[in-house]
């Protein structure tokens, strides 16, 4: 990825940010990981509602894995909306 960016300071910065995310070493990395899970379950909820399918495995795969209070609260809100439609 860094080679595609031509190397240099920008590429190094992106590499450092990627490693921060992979290592889950900062609050920002934790928020981004939570947002990634939120996006997945939101999309699963949309598919369930639009296509009348049960995508429980997506919700189970994220259960108990949110690291931030924001992620946890959003996940609870999505679960409540899912229960309301189910």
TrEMBL record:
Gene Ontology annotations for the cellular component aspect, listed alphabetically: cytoplasm
Pfam families for the chain: HD_3 (PF13023)
SUPFAM superfamilies: HD-domain/PDEase-like
One function term, GO molecular function aspect: metal ion binding
InterPro entries membership: HD_domain (IPR006674), YfbR/HDDC2 (IPR039356)
Annotated keywords: Hydrolase, Metal-binding
Residue ranges the record marks as coiled coil: none
Residue span, HD domain: 3-72
Gene3D superfamilies named in the record: Hypothetical protein af1432
Database matches in PANTHER family: 5'-DEOXYNUCLEOTIDASE HDDC2
Protein name: HD domain-containing protein
């Amino acid at each position: 990825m860094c080679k595609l960016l031509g190397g240099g300071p920008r590429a190094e910065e992106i590499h450092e940010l990627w490693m921060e995310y992979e290592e889950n070493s900062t609050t920002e990395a934790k928020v981004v990981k939570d947002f990634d899970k939120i996006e997945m379950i939101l999309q699963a909820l949309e598919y369930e509602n639009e296509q009348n399918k049960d995508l429980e495995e997506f919700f189970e795969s994220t259960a108990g894995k949110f690291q931030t209070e924001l992620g946890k609260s959003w996940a609870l809100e999505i679960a409540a909306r899912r229960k309301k439609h189910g």
